[in-house]
Design goal:
The chain has about 220 residues and is an all-alpha fold. The chain has a single domain, classed as Tetracycline Repressor, domain 2. It is built from eight helices and no strands. It has helices at about 25-45, 50-60, 65-70, 75-90, 105-135, 140-165, 170-190, 195-215. It is elongated, with a radius of gyration of 19 Å.
């Protein structure tokens, strides 16, 4: 997890304290443990219920270690958001383009779905945790909404490149696209072996291709 990344789209920016000019392996490991515990506890207990004492206990670090790197619980959550946002941009930017051989489109898109689900394996906990926190912190909700909608527009542009023509509203198409992927990933984990993962990825690709080929109103 890239604990030092920041995203300018967050109006409330995360603060990471650096007690030294360069963070060593141990410091980065401590930061990652804190971020992981923050996300998991917020998901399990809600934003208000995840106290810093609980976070440090779950992370196996001291309270002093937490404050060495983060001024507050909110900063830890915002750092998770910046990391997840950067990772999302990277995976969306690898979405296949229109110039892919038509006979290979479904297979290449299924391979991309596999990569997206891998992204969700790492950041899905945070996405759920952010949703929990946003219900309890209006500033977090506003900051997260702006970034999320920007990500949806980015996904919409990537889909337009695969489609070969623009959408009437790329942001809303991107929202539907990412929501479908996230919900499918969630059920894949919930149902476990009852779902064949390779078949699910292939069928998800077919649904995406159907979305791209569907005419819009007035088309």
């Amino acid at each position: 997890m890239a604990a030092l990344s920041k995203d300018e789209s967050f109006e409330i920016r995360p603060t990471l304290r650096q007690p030294a000019p360069e963070l060593g392996t141990r410091a980065r490991r401590t930061i990652d443990l804190i971020l992981q515990a923050t996300g998991e506890l917020i998901m399990a207990r809600g934003y208000g219920g995840a106290r810093i004492d609980d976070i440090v206990q779950a992370a196996g670090v001291s309270r002093a270690s937490f404050y060495t790197y983060f001024p507050s619980k909110r900063d830890a959550l915002l750092m998770l958001g910046a990391d997840a946002s950067a990772a999302f941009d990277r995976v969306v930017d690898t979405l296949p383009r229109r110039d892919v051989d038509p006979e290979e489109r479904a297979a290449s898109l299924a391979a991309w779905v596999h990569e997206y689900f891998a992204f969700m394996d790492e950041y899905g906990t945070f996405i759920v945790a952010w949703s929990q926190a946003a219900h309890e912190d209006e500033e977090l909700r506003e900051a997260g909404m702006r970034r999320h909608l920007a990500s949806c527009r980015r996904a919409g542009r990537a889909l337009e490149a695969l489609r070969g023509r623009p959408f009437a509203d790329r942001m809303q198409i991107g929202l539907l696209f990412t929501s479908m992927l996230e919900r499918t990933w969630s059920y894949r984990h919930l149902y476990g072996e009852a779902l064949n993962r390779r078949d699910l990825e292939r069928n998800t690709a077919f649904v995406i291709l159907a979305l791209l080929d569907a005419p819009e109103d007035g088309a």
